[in-house]
Amino acid sequence: MKDTRVVADAGTAQTRHAHQLRRLAGTGLGATLVAMVATTLVAAIARAAGVSLEIPEGGETIPLPGVAVMTGFFSVVGVVIAAALRRRSTRPADRFVRTTVALTALSFVPPFLVDASTATITTLLGLHLVAATVMIPTLARSLRALSEARPSPPSPPRTARRGSRPGR
Prior knowledge:
Blueprint lengths: L4 H44 L5 E2 L4 E2 L2 H25 L3 H15 L3 H4 L4 H32 L19
Antiparallel strand pairs: 1-2
Helix pairs in contact: 1-2, 1-5, 2-3, 2-5, 3-5
């Protein structure tokens, strides 16, 4: 006689994983849109206040849509990292926070490598913080909720040993 529970459990686990991945991706993409709007708004306010966002090497000014695109791209990278940690880590939220805080700290280096004004450097650092402030807590919260919803593996059925009686 075949035990069909094993096949049913595997199918249920795959369905649950796919649902949780879609939920994480949906939350992440929503947070990505919020981060894109927030960073673009901060960049627009900075530009209105007189910050040029000009990178002297090449004389290029960072356009507002460029701020949105870069925020969107790296935010999606964060969602991919969250999904990978969700699948491979026993504590995905903690690992995600440590990883993304370290990556955010590394993202502070490039603005100092160009010969931009102090106002432009400060604005760029602020934009990194705005995006991180939206993305990291949102995805960490989602990972924690999904981890709590993750069922523990089933324990093996208990069988009585021969010759043992209850109460002895």
